[in-house]
Please model this.
Amino acid sequence: MIDCGEGTQMQLRRSRIRFTKLSAVFISHLHGDHCFGLIGMISTFGLLGRTAKLDIYAPAELEAMLHEQMQMFCHNFDYEVVFHAVNTTQQQIVYEDRSLTVETIPLEHRMPCCGYLFKEKATLPHINRDMIDFYQIPTSQINNIKAGADWTTVEGKVIPNSRLVCHADAPRSYAYCSDTRYIPLLHERIKGVTALYHESTYGEDNLQLADKYYHSTARQAAMVARDAQAGRLLLGHYSSRYEDENVLLNEAKEVFENSFLCDEQQVFEL
Model:
């Protein structure tokens, strides 16, 4: 989960996501709309009998406050909450497992803030099942073939690996950039990302407000996506002054056509 504002638990239930599926939370910064829901969610997990540990990645300033809240509201739970302080000024890997890495992305806001870059690790090629069956290759050799081995038949004929496998899927990536003012060189940190979420609080009619409050316009978000050669741009974090966010979408599309508005419960396939 990325950020945890008020209403998070209701949204999880509406999305029919089991609470036990959540193993880590990444907090971008300590404004309430990004972290006020965290302690309530932690408490609910404990009351539901959670046993698996929960990892929290967030700016260091949150640790003391979270500890005090848990001392007050979360007693005798059967699971551990592990806090990981992140450096919002550096791009570095803060999480890694067998399938992906998560890197911080330094952003510029009114307080320490970072985004997160999720990068899928490259996978092995897919087995060409028809060829495996045709040459009667035993299951015990599948991993060797995925790793690049050829196959030699009983007659001594060498079947090249390229006939036994299909290309692996290209690794996917997702960059989450909120909240931040426009950073001209941000695209260099997220080059070629499959999907970019970039805040788009304002339109160009409020460019001065965006600069004053360290937010971005939809057009600026699109400039980052264009320069990063992103696959698509997801817009969000709209100012309430816009009754119709299509104004923001249209401004973004003028710069980067593959732009989309985000809304609650919306799903994007990467």
